[in-house]
Specification:
Strand order of the largest sheet of chain A: 1-7-6-5-4-2-3
Strand order of the largest sheet of chain B: 1-7-6-5-4-2-3
CATH class of the largest domain in chain B: Alpha Beta
Helix content of chain A: 25-40%
CATH superfamily of the largest domain in chain A: Type I PLP-dependent aspartate aminotransferase-like (Major domain)
Oligomer: heterodimer
Bound molecules: pyridoxal-5'-phosphate
Largest sheet of chain A: 7 strands, mixed
Number of strands of chain A: 13
Radius of gyration of chain A: 26 Å
Number of strands of chain B: 13
Number of domains of chain B: 2
Order of helices and strands of chain A: HHHEHEHEHEHEEEEEHEEHEEHHHH
Strand content of chain B: 5-15%
């Protein structure tokens, strides 16, 4: 039934801020600048002349606006969010509290070094944890996210190769890799070449060997890979690449499966990013921010980007310029200031909380949970590759064959059952992928409920109820949205009806 | 371990269901010689209280802007953040959701980002804006690469008034691409003349306004000079509050705006995370990096929002994408947007005027100090002093007395002796008359 207001009890419609404008209103009371100075402006000929047109709202209106918007979101705090490759684990509130402490949130990156010794120590302590956990001798702390870390790692590799007088041209990337991998390799000036997968969902070592040659700079391998599997020939892979003079980049997005169990340094990896917003529990925030520190092998250590912390004679110091790098040859700067300090603080709070055993237990619970889903769902969904899996399990859409239900429809039906869908259509190596990552912060009862729902939905699909799936979701604030229309006639900013008419 | 809900009994039951004798069986694809059989050498589990004690201990070794008269800026500004903004971004539904790939359960984030895009376009005077990049420096680098794609040229000219970190990040990004970066020497007086530099190979000129040394300029003529040669004008803004008082890049006919949005809603955070703002002329839409939210309707005809035009992005286009960015600065963008919504037109313009007035008051007081000269003919809320001696030593000495006097230019230009005596001083609305008197008194004593 349509209600007169468009609302449905707790589901409240909310206009755009631009549609709630009371001209002249503000929710921030500020002193009058005229009382501070009667001297004329120092803006020269660049003073703004025209109004901007921003809407004016009072504080109660603003609070209500964002509260209502928030209620239209699904979030890990509210429900199961098995989004494969994204590691939607619990985000401890302690982390938020630590990032907001005076002396943490209110320090400036270019203060005199003596006044931020605690910040340098915090960066150094986090770096120590990351190095020990990965078994690597160095880490570049400044990259802003996973993709930025990939670019950082590849640049480090390229500079190290150039220092040998041998930049090389090609980077090999498995077909199953995340889109950021080829995009990052391209931004590093490399030609990207795909390596096929075996029938077991892993890098085809023989095919890889055929592609290796003196012009291969690096391989970018994801391990555990995007099919949720450990690359069981990883040591052979890294050896083969090293033998032909190339280096090994590892996409560490899936490190959550192996923390405290396997050290990438023992596998022959030369560079690997860690998504602190995945493995190390910092919140995704509806799309960011993240942090993507890159651990580096001995071969690459000297080329890490600026800035980095060193232990000086008067405490900690930060190297910010090539001229101060001594024998090192940093390749440049990736990011303004020193990187995602606020995210790093949160990840340290998490690591300190978990401790060495806790982190190891977390990985093993993540793997256990994923294997449990695999065990309980494989007879009704179609498993893409045999297990055991790591922290996520990959199904494809063969179980929907001849049902007229697609992976997308299936995902939308899950929403009505109160679950966030798994990752769909990624990785690209299987048809209609359904990639489920439960994470270690879900209990057995949640998994059992989820398993029950997935089984019921799969049966329903197989029994020919495609129309119900096509109609889903129906209980959400909005039903299926027209993406074609959005792309065909892009409306990317609000325009008042009046402006649109002109 | 408080974050792990499985009990030992659950673990046992689940292994039985899986048909695995133990956890080692699930790690069987890992060669045994690299499978660790015990925890690594790091400390053990800690309760909240212990973690708080450790991190508070580290925090106590820092001198925060809240604990001292504070005059640093240089692209990272201390502004007051309304209580409602920091509260609202900690709503679980905003804080703990992923990128809005499932629009039916993400309308909150999507609508907020649509409003953010609109606000960014409005204050920069541009036609469209994306849903954020990492920070201002990486936004500048993206702008350079985008200008090269649009013009199919590869010379990028960086103004001597561009923040050195922005210049370095742009150069790093271009390092292995066929892009020539021409970085002009530091230009504290903002007197550089690009006329002779812009040629038929030039993809864009990147200027910052207000400049790194605080100078404010109307770049309209530069825009014409660029356009006459078929080049683009990129305007960088590191202090977004300035746009409440200063002509917008759009007013100056800029083609791309790459800005840092930290000043609204986001704390200093020792330099990150911050939020990159990116706004362009509509005709360049298809070359935009990053995510875009677009308006559409659902099957019932109700207005709603989705991520759109993703064929530009890495997950569809892979190595041909406009950028490799995936995770961006969503929550920082939300904080920015909430702060700007709270301010509204009246509050935003007044905040800008207040910053400007505070800076004028401080500049006039400092200019009267012996051994100090304000070099700017124009500024917004940050200006540059020439001291009668190297600035770094003075700043360090004042810091020992818990006064954070500003940024010695030598910190970012260590090899440029001509800049050694320059000190950048910022004065936002957080600076009190007492703070000003302390700085004036301390400089009178030190110089
Ligand atoms: C396998 C994989 N690689 C790389 C990335 C990119 O990481 P980020 O989003 O932090 O840039 C992701 C994230 O979605 C991923 O799943």
């Amino acid at each position: 039934m349509e209600m007169a207001t468009g609302n449905r009890a707790l589901q409240l419609e909310e206009k755009l801020i631009f549609e709630q404008n009371s001209p002249g209103m503000t929710a921030v009371d500020l002193p009058n600048p005229a009382e501070l100075t009667n001297v004329k402006s120092r803006l020269g000929d660049a003073a703004r002349k025209d109004p901007i047109g921003l809407p004016g709202l009072s504080e109660p209106q603003v609070v209500r606006h964002y509260l209502r918007l928030s209620q239209k979101n699904f979030a890990i705090d509210g429900g199961f969010y098995p989004l494969g490759s994204c590691t939607m684990k619990h985000n401890p509130r302690l982390n938020e509290k630590m990032a907001r402490l005076p002396g943490i949130a209110d320090i400036h990156p270019l203060q005199p070094k003596a006044t931020v010794q605690g910040a340098y120590e915090l960066l150094d302590m986090t770096a120590h944890w990351l190095k020990v956990l990965t078994g690597m001798p160095a880490v570049a702390m400044s990259p802003a996210a996973g993709a930025h870390g990939e670019l950082c790692g590849l640049m480090t590799i390229r500079v190290a190769l150039e220092a040998r007088g041998d930049a090389r041209q090609r980077v090999l990337v498995p077909e199953s890799a995340h889109g950021t991998n080829p995009a990052s390799a391209h931004m590093c000036g490399y030609k990207v070449e795909a390596i096929p997968a075996t029938g077991q969902g892993r890098v085809d070592l023989q095919a890889l060997k055929k592609k290796l040659g003196p012009d291969v700079a690096a391989i970018m391998v994801t391990n555990p890979n995007t099919c949720g599997l450990f690359e069981n020939e990883i040591i052979e892979i890294t050896q083969a690449v090293h033998e032909c003079g190339g280096l090994v980049y590892c996409d560490g997005a899936n490190f959550n499966a192996i923390v405290g169990r396997v050290r990438p340094g023992d596998l022959g990896i030369d560079a690997m990013h860690l998504n602190l917003h995945k493995t190390f529990s910092t919140p995704h925030g509806g799309g960011g921010p993240g942090a993507g520190p890159v651990v580096l092998s001995e071969a690459l250590e000297a080329y890490a980007p600026l800035p980095y912390i060193v232990h000086g004679k008067d405490g900690f110091d930060m190297v910010e310029h090539v001229a101060d790098a001594g024998n090192d040859q940093p390749f440049g700067r990736m990011k303004g200031f020193h990187g995602q300090f606020g995210v790093i603080v949160r990840s340290l709070a998490y690591m300190l909380s978990m401790g060495a055993e806790g982190l190891r237990q977390a990985s093993s619970d993540a793997v256990l949970n994923a294997n449990y889903l695999m065990a309980e769902l494989s007879d009704i969904l179609t498993l893409s590759y045999d297990g055991p899996c790591m922290h996520e399990v990959l199904f494809d859409d063969r179980f929907l064959k001849d049902t007229d239900v697609t992976t997308l429809d299936f995902a939308k039906a899950m929403i009505d059952e109160g679950f966030h869908p798994m990752t769909m259509y990624f990785p690209l190596v299987v048809h209609g992928a359904l990639l489920m990552e439960p994470t270690e912060t879900e209990g057995k009862a949640t998994l059992d409920e989820f398993i029950g729902v997935i089984r019921a939905l799969a049966e329903k699909a197989q029994n020919g109820n495609a129309d119900d799936f096509k109609a889903a979701p129906i209980y959400t604030p909005r039903r299926r949205l027209n993406e074609t229309k959005a792309a065909r006639t892009p409306v990317l900013i609000y325009q008042s009806e009046q402006a649109a008419a002109e | 371990m408080r974050y792990l809900p499985l009990t030992d009994q659950d673990r046992q039951d689940m292994l039985v269901a899986i048909g695995a004798p133990d956890m080692a069986a699930l790690y069987k694809d890992v060669a045994t010689e690299v499978l660790l059989d015990q925890p690594v050498d790091l400390p053990g589990v800690k309760g909240e209280l212990e973690v708080e004690q450790i991190i508070s201990g580290l925090a106590a070794k820092n001198l925060g802007s809240g604990a001292a008269p504070f005059f640093l800026g240089a692209g990272n500004y201390s502004h007051h953040i309304p209580a409602a903004a920091d509260h609202l971004i900690q709503r679980s539904e905003f804080l703990t959701s992923y990128t809005p790939y499932q629009p039916e359960v993400s309308q909150g984030t999507l609508q907020a980002l649509f409003e953010f895009q609109t606000q960014v376009a409005m204050i920069t005077g541009m036609e469209i804006a994306n849903a954020s990049l990492y920070d201002g420096a990486t936004a500048a680098a993206e702008a350079a690469m985008m200008a090269c794609r649009i013009t199919r040229r590869n010379k990028v000219i960086l103004s001597g008034g561009l923040h050195p970190h922005y210049a370095e990040v742009t150069a790093t990004n271009a390092k292995f691409l066929t892009i020539d970066i021409v970085t002009n020497p530091a230009d504290p007086l903002a007197q550089e003349d690009f006329a002779a530099q812009i040629d038929d190979e030039t993809a864009c000129v990147i200027v910052q306004n207000p400049g790194f040394f605080g100078q404010v300029r109307n770049h309209s003529e530069l825009a014409v000079a660029c356009h006459n040669k078929g080049a683009l004008l990129v305007v960088v803004v590191t202090e977004i509050v300035s746009l409440g008082a200063v002509l917008s890049p759009g007013d100056m006919e800029a083609d791309i705006v790459a800005a840092e949005g930290q000043s609204l809603g986001n704390a200093l955070n020792f330099g990150g995370p911050h939020v990159g703002l990116f706004a362009v002329r509509r005709k360049y839409l298809r070359q935009m990096p990053g995510r875009l939210v677009g308006e559409t309707e659902d099957v019932g005809g109700k207005r709603g929002w989705v991520l759109t035009l993703s064929t530009r992005e890495q997950h569809i286009r892979r190595e041909k994408a406009t950028s490799n960015i995936c995770t961006n600065s969503g929550l920082c963008a939300l904080a920015f947007s909430i702060h700007l919504t709270l301010l509204g037109e009246a509050g935003f313009t007044r905040l800008a005027q207040l910053n400007h007035a505070t800076a004028i008051a401080l500049a006039d007081k400092l200019d009267a100090v012996k051994g100090v000269e304000v070099i700017n003919d124009t500024f917004f809320n940050e200006f540059t002093l020439r001291l009668n001696q190297p600035a770094a030593g003075v700043v360090d000495a004042l810091a020992e007395n818990d006064l954070l006097a500003g940024l010695p230019a030598s910190r970012l230009y260590p090899s440029d002796k001509a800049l050694e005596n320059l000190l950048l001083v910022a004065a936002t609305e957080t600076v009190t008359p007492t703070d000003m008197d302390q700085l004036v008194g301390a400089l009178e004593e030190a110089l």
